[in-house]
Design goal:
It contains 16 helices and six strands. Helix content is about 50%, strand content about 5%. The chain has two domains: about 5-10 and about 245-350, no CATH class; about 25-230, no CATH class. Strand 2 and strand 3 form a beta hairpin. The strands form two sheets. The protein has a three-stranded mixed β-sheet with strand order 1-3-2, with helices on one face. The radius of gyration is 26 Å and the shape is elongated.
């Protein structure tokens, strides 16, 4: 990678940008992530065991889960990108491997199956998984739960005794073990009769219901904490302090772009919005060729030095959802030209775009 692009898109800069970006501006999609690979893997598992009518809905949220009472499954946004995974590990203390993500999905599919066929209402389920009271209202409000580390009545695939948190998790963990290919559950749990009975229950109930239509209707309006709705920055969500990256970031242009441009105006009328305002990224694209040719000539730097910088500004203006008033078009062009020129002069003199002390 050429030096100009390496400076602008180095890892420390990109981490700082991610931390300072609102989650709903990350433009996250399942496509192209580890989730796109995990979903077909588990769908093959479901087809293998004869679950043919269950069709879960997947979306990206603040964590992994299944909407109570509905086969709608969420993924943690922090696993959508390797750098987000790095930040999550750095500030929150954990990182899921690809294999663990597949197992998490198997677990959530267990919830989805339970909800889709309302197993929690049946006497056999309630007796076997020791449901007392309302199935959903008795779920613990926190992640803290008591467990017996010597109990042999539960599966414990991850070593965290999570099945003991609540009957809902007991079934989901049991389902995950049962669904995992080559888990050898009959042999592994033959000395644990209660856990084995739960696994055999899953085996039997899937044979009964796997080819039947679910009993519940999937309501997309039940989706909770979609990434599109979360205005917190990644740093706020992770309770992270991005200051450690400021002096190591060599291509951090966000504060400067925010000073030149403005946030999206609060105008409900879309036609009026685009009549009076322009996206900063489109403004930059319109002026890109002209700025590259003129600034590279007058400053005396290679065109790639200017091109990469403007490319960086376009990328960040889009991520930050920056705009400008159309009536200030010429004024903003002067500001932008001055800014790009100043950074390119600094690059010519020092080999860096940004002063070390800003």
């Amino acid at each position: 990678m050429r030096r100009s692009r390496e400076l602008l898109f180095q890892v420390e800069t990109r981490k700082l940008e991610l931390l300072q970006t609102p989650i709903n501006q990350l433009d996250l999609r399942i496509r192209g992530t580890v989730f796109e690979q995990a979903i077909p893997t588990v769908q093959v598992d479901l087809d293998r065991v004869g679950i043919r009518k269950l069709e879960p809905v997947f979306y990206i949220s603040t964590g992994y889960g299944c909407i109570a009472g509905s086969p709608i499954i969420s993924f943690g946004f922090y696993d959508c990108d390797p750098l987000l995974q790095d930040l999550n590990e750095e500030f929150r203390g954990w990182r899921y491997s690809d294999t663990e993500i597949v197992n998490l999905l198997r677990h959530e599919i267990g919830h989805a199956f339970c909800y889709a066929y309302k197993l929690y209402r049946t006497p056999e389920f309630r007796n076997l998984f020791e449901v007392q009271g309302n199935f959903f209202n008795t779920y613990p409000l926190s992640d803290q739960y008591d467990y017996n580390p010597w109990s042999r009545a539960y599966v414990n695939p991850c070593g965290d005794h999570y099945a003991q948190k609540h009957p809902d998790e007991d079934f989901a963990e049991t389902f995950c073990v049962w669904l995992t290919p080559r888990s050898g559950w009959r042999r592994k749990y033959k000395s644990r009769p209660i856990a084995l009975k739960k696994l055999e229950y899953v085996d039997d109930i899937v044979k009964q219901l796997g080819r039947q239509q679910p009993l519940v209707e999937t309501k997309l309006s039940w989706m909770y904490e979609r990434v599109e709705d979360i205005k917190l920055t990644v740093a706020q969500f992770m309770q992270a302090k991005p200051s450690r990256y400021y002096h190591r970031a060599t291509g951090y242009v966000d504060p400067d772009l925010k000073a030149i441009f403005r946030p999206q105006p609060r105008i409900a009328n879309r036609r009026a919005l685009y009549r009076d305002y322009l996206r900063a990224e489109n403004f930059l694209r319109e002026q890109k060729l002209s700025l590259v040719n003129r600034i590279s000539y007058w400053v005396g730097v290679d065109t790639t030095v200017v091109y990469d910088l403007i490319d960086k500004c376009i990328h960040r203006a889009k991520s930050l959802n920056l705009w400008l008033e159309r009536e200030q078009y010429d004024k903003k062009l002067v500001e932008l030209t001055s800014y790009i020129t100043a950074l390119c002069v600094h690059y010519r003199e020092t080999g860096l775009y940004m002063p070390k002390e800003r």
